[in-house]
Amino acid sequence: MNVAISNVVEFVGSSLNNGWLESECYLKAIADLALTADIGFLDVQFFLFSRNHSAIINLIGLHFSIASLHVPPIEVSKALQARQVAGRKVCVNLLKLGRWFYGFRLPDEHESHKISLSELTMAEGAEILAILNRGAVHEVFRLQISWGT
Known about the structure:
The chain is an alpha+beta fold and 149 residues long. It contains 7 helices and 6 strands. The chain has one domain (2-147).
C-alpha cells in the first residue's frame, strides 16, 4: 500500500516541469491510486497530507479522497487542518483555444486560479475540482498545476 503511494509521489516528482504538473500526469497519479484497492482515507492522511510533501501531492490526496474514496469534503477539510496543510495554495492554469466566430478565430484565453486546499473542499472549490477532474479536453487546450506561496 505505501509502496503504491510512494510510486505515485515519485512519479509526480519526476513529472514536474519547472514546478508545473501537466493535467495528464495529475490524472494518471489519481488513477494509479484508484487502482490500488487497499488505500483508505487514513493512508491518504498519513502519507499524502504530509507537510514534507508539496502542495501538489496534498492536492492529489484531497482529490483522490473526494472523488475515489467518496469522503465528504468537510471530513477532508478537517484532516487537512489536523495535518496543518489546509492553508497551502495551488495554482491551476488553463489555456483555452480561441473559438471560431463567423470565419475569424477569436484570441486564446488564459485563466489562472490560485486557491488554498481548504477552499477546494468548499463550494467555491467545486468548479476547480471539476476542471481538474475533466483535464485538458474540448475547449481547454492545456491545464497546468503548480503550488503557490
